[in-house]
Amino acid sequence: MSNLQTTIKRSINLKGVGIHTGKDVSITFKPAEEDVGYVFSRIDLPNKPLIRALSEYVCETQRGTTLEKDGVKLKTTEHVLAALVGLEIDNIIIEIDGEEPPIMDGSSKFFVKALEEVGIVKQSKLRSEFVIKDVINFRDDETGSEITIIPADNYQVTTMVNYETKVLGTQNATLNNLKEFKTDFANARTFSFFT
């Protein structure tokens, strides 16, 4: 992983349908200056309100990650954010004309393809890094979800899911390097249960 921040070389637009709203939606990725981070702009609303992709704005994680700031919501952001992290893009403006990004095929691969198509460029400022020095654990008793962060010399993310269904069983995966995201994880699709 390079220590320099990155952005994209030029803007690119994608169109599709929101998975929960069923409405046509357009999303445009635009280059951003250093230290901007990931900023969504709801261009369908007056004053085009901005929502930074920060944990303090996460208001819901059931069936997707929803961000909310000053009463403005943006749903199902996880596929877009996964593509940005997986490609190690640090700074970007994401203009969207609806309350959720297009679902595309239910994965991150179309976002990855579009972002790679326009190119990623290094910027002049160094990245800020958060160094884990102690074990951090959080459990949501309502959902049973749990996350544990452990200090390590190498980057690794391991995940396990168990929806207590015979169709899926217990599944797990490990990402040892962000370079694996494009080939091994970007194609992973969302799914639904019918009852």
Describe the structure.
This protein is mainly beta and 195 residues long. It folds into two domains: 4-126, lpxc deacetylase, domain 1 (Ribosomal Protein S5, domain 2, 2-Layer Sandwich); 136-185, no CATH class. It has three helices and 14 strands. It has a five-stranded mixed β-sheet, with helices on one face. A three-stranded antiparallel β-sheet has the order 6-7-8, with no helix packed on it. A two-stranded antiparallel ribbon has the order 1-10. β7 and β8 (72-74) form a beta hairpin. The longest helix is centred in the middle third of the chain and has 10 residues, at 109-118. It is globular and about 45 Å long. The termini are far apart.
Features:
195 residues, mainly beta, Ribosomal Protein S5, domain 2, five-stranded mixed β-sheet, three-stranded antiparallel β-sheet, 3 helices, 35% strand, globular
